[in-house]
């Protein structure tokens, strides 16, 4: 056995030089988006009285350590080291030019004392909390107006202990919108890497009104039945690069957003230049999602090399009447999906409204969407594309798509109010996408 493995290996090493091995070095990464910084000034949470026994509340220690970083402004910034241990704490704010470094075996764990959890103002592009009117609970780890912040380490854990919040949601006893696990607002040059995110109360990682954000080598975990535990939600943000991560949660794995109905339209801040690559995961909702809050618009999204298992929906573009906003130039390619209810869904009737003041004439626009090289097995329904009568989806290109069912007769595609083209799609898509004079849409995008 060992011998045959060895000879297989030798055989491979003999072939490797013949292949274009340089392509291995050419793997595209997010590295250029934000420079990684090495910081000479290092402090440890234990210098500020931090105790990693899982019982002591460390909120003061985090506040004092971060206040020290903010006040002294050491050249090149400061690294805050979290040694192995479990550090229970209330939510806290980060500051600019810092690295939060979790050692192997370090856990920063959120208190479950929801009564003392701080409230902050709603996001202007949402007009209210996403779940309930009024303010919202501050994210567990928060940053507003920051630059040059890194959260990294040796795959330590940031644990939201979200079950108390999920239960309040289930019992309808929440007073305000649940906290995200990590939120950066109005910030730039952010790197989040080599960290595990566990049991977020609500969305896991939420960059909003941000630019230049890299999220890579992260693991995000929450139970399959945990409500609204989206993995990563770039929201009204640009130049966001997400790669090499594993996400298994109770809601969309990655969902690109840009504000909600009349508030999002008025705020008018789009999400654009978003890259998502080499992400693997599973969820009862969507793998790669755009929306449903897209009122500021979403442009130039590339998602590629995605592996999805046990999903509700593989790829989901979703918006609604009253949203407004333009969703365009979206490319999703090289996706493998297995055991999925719906392979591809693009729909104009998804998601709720903040209130009844939304403008029914604010119709979303969806155009220039390319979905190619998709292989799905055990897919119950291959595709569903439902545009709006008064705002049909245009230039939708489907190419090289194979979405096989479980057994028995193939469930057909369903489409309405959509135009575009389809090349090499099996089972054959709806007539709206097969008219030959439109194949230009698809060939341009190669
Ligand atoms: C943390 O930031 C929020 C929002 O910027 C602010 O309202 C709050 O006062 C800050 N908390 C502390 C302890 O500085
Ligand atoms: C942390 O996890 C990533 C995968 O997400 C892995 O590539 C990396 O080697 C791990 N790092 C350490 C120090 O264990
Ligand atoms: C469309 O988006 C891609 C990223 O997926 C980008 O490279 C390209 O420049 C965009 N095209 C236009 C016309 O903006």
Automatic annotation (TrEMBL):
GO BP field: carbohydrate metabolic process
Signal peptide start-end: 1-25
GO molecular function: polygalacturonase activity
Entry keyword set: Glycosidase, Hydrolase, Signal
Pfam families to which the protein is assigned, alphabetical: Glyco_hydro_28
Gene3D superfamilies from the UniProt entry: Single-stranded right-handed beta-helix, Pectin lyase-like
Coiled coil: none
SMART domains cross-referenced by the UniProt entry: PbH1
Family classification: Belongs to the glycosyl hydrolase 28 family.
Protein name according to UniProt: Pectin lyase-like superfamily protein
Organism: Tetracentron sinense
Phylogenetic placement of the source organism: Eukaryota, Viridiplantae, Streptophyta, Embryophyta, Tracheophyta
């Amino acid at each position: 056995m060992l011998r045959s493995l060895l000879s297989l290996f030798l055989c491979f090493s003999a072939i490797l030089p013949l292949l274009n091995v340089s392509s291995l070095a050419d793997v595209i990464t997010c590295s250029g988006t934000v420079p990684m910084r090495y910081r000479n000034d290092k402090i440890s949470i234990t210098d500020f009285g931090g105790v990693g026994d899982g019982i002591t509340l460390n909120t003061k220690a985090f506040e004092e350590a971060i206040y020290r970083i903010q006040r002294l402004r050491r050249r090149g910034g400061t690294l805050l080291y979290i040694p192995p241990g479990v550090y229970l704490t209330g939510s806290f704010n980060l500051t600019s030019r810092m690295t939060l470094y979790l050692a192997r075996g370090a856990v920063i764990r959120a208190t479950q004392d929801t009564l003392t959890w701080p409230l902050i103002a709603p996001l202007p592009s949402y007009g209210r909390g996403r779940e309930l009117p009024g303010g919202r609970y501050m994210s567990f780890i928060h940053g507003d107006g920051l630059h040059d912040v890194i959260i990294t380490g040796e795959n330590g854990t940031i644990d939201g202990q979200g079950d108390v919040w999920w239960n309040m949601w289930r019992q309808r006893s929440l007073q305000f919108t649940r906290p995200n696990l990590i939120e950066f607002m109005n910030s730039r040059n952010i790197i989040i890497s080599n960290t595990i995110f566990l049991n977020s109360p609500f969305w896991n990682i939420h960059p909003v009104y941000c630019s230049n954000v890299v999220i890579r080598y992260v693991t995000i975990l929450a139970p399959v039945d945990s409500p609204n535990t989206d993995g990563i939600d770039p929201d009204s943000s640009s130049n966001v690069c997400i790669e090499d991560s594993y996400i298994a949660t109770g809601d969309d794995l990655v969902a690109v957003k840009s504000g909600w109905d009349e508030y999002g339209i008025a705020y008018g801040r789009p999400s654009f230049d978003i890259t998502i690559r080499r992400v693997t995961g599973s969820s009862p909702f969507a793998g790669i999602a755009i929306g449903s809050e897209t009122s500021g618009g979403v442009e130039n999204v590339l998602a590629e090399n995605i592996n999805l298992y046990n999903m509700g929906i593989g790829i989901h573009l979703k918006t609604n009447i009253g949203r407004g906003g333009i969703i365009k130039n979206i490319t999703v390619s090289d996706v493998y999906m297995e055991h999925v209810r719906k392979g591809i869904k693009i729909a104009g009737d998804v998601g709720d409204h903040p209130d009844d003041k939304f403008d029914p004439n604010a119709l979303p626009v969806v155009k220039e969407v390319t979905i190619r090289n998709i292989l799905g097995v055990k897919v119950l329904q291959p595709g569903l594309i439902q545009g709006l009568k008064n705002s049909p989806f245009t230039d939708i290109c489907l190419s090289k798509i194979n979405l096989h069912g479980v057994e028995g007769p193939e469930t057909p595609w369903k489409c309405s109010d959509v135009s575009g083209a389809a090349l090499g799609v099996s089972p054959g898509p709806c007539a709206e996408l097969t008219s030959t004079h439109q194949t230009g849409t698809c060939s341009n995008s190669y």
